[in-house]
Description:
The protein has 14 helices and 12 strands. The protein is α/β, with parallel strands linked by helices.
Amino acid sequence: MKIDTLLVRAGIQRDPATGSISTPIYQSATFAHPELGKSTGYDYSRTANPTRAALEEAIAVLEKGHKGFAFSSGMAAITTLLFLFKPGDHLIVSDDLYGGTYRLLEEVFGHYGITASYTDTSSVENVRNSITSRTKALFIETPTNPLMKVTDLELMIGTAKEHGLLTIVDNTFMTPYLQQPIAYGADIVMHSATKYLGGHNDSVAGLVVTASEELSEKVLKLQNGAGAILGPQDSWLILRGMKTLGVRLERQQENAGRLAEWLKDHPAIQHVYYPGLNDHPEYEISSRQARGFGAMLSFTVKEKETVPAILKNLKIISFAESLGGVESLITYPYTQTHADIPEEIRQSRGVTDKLLRLSVGIENIEDLLEDLKSVLPS
Length: 378
Ligand SMILES: *Cc1c(COP(=O)(O)O)cnc(C)c1O
């Protein structure tokens, strides 16, 4: 089956007793045993729950991995993955990173002796130079957030493997509909399912897919041991959202492409960061490794004084954190998602006070263009 079909089929045929098309929500903490030493396969919902299992199976199939795991948030998913490491271990991480992942590494895991170096993972040179005798893993976000830098997955995962590193890809921005990192050798893929997979800004969730049985066993133990699982109601919401991922993303990236081209030529705009623009430095790599360019784009305005009015006066595009939903959102990474990164690091990485990030939704493109036109000085 093609991916659009797999998405729609996610969770169907879970209930042979009734034939229910929608996956039932098993709102139960515990499950009765038929007799001593026997189990229905479900004992206690931290360990396994049938609604969560439907979602976990779906994401494993979509990412072409071995096993899927659902967590209470994207950060809970990353936290659980970081429990794979021990004091003294070192990770190499994309420098233009989701702010929460940076905070988790620096302010939580740093205290337990797990360290990270942040580097531009689009350069093999940089990654090689960051490897030490303690390096255990490479954690890639591609495209990055918010500057949309693209890492060549095949090349970088190959390099990491030469050095025996575990490779983890945060695939939140692309989703399995556009990019499947396990096909390029990634060991683990994770998602903030809050974003495109859920797609409606109505629930917070995290998903992990492991590529091998050995890793699946480790993550299963950590998921059950640490317990940051996704509840049945939210599992159902994410499953429901995933069914329309294909059609949503097609429309979203079509809108994003149009907006990127339009913004690029606007006199108030300095630069547009979107991998689908053919002057983007990694346009070729993007075209090769992903089925599309996604629907996230960032841009800088020429005058930082124009930012407050833009954020205040947009009518359709909401000024709100998060991304990936059907509604278009605009964020100001400098004071929102990336506020926890020290000022000089933010500046040096290009997350400046002139940068805005758009998560493009499924609205009519004319309305989106009109909305932006009305707030940008001409
Ligand atoms: C939102 C996000 C996360 C964190 O996920 P939550 O569901 O908010 O906990 C991690 N990585 C990326 C790329 C994100 O956009």
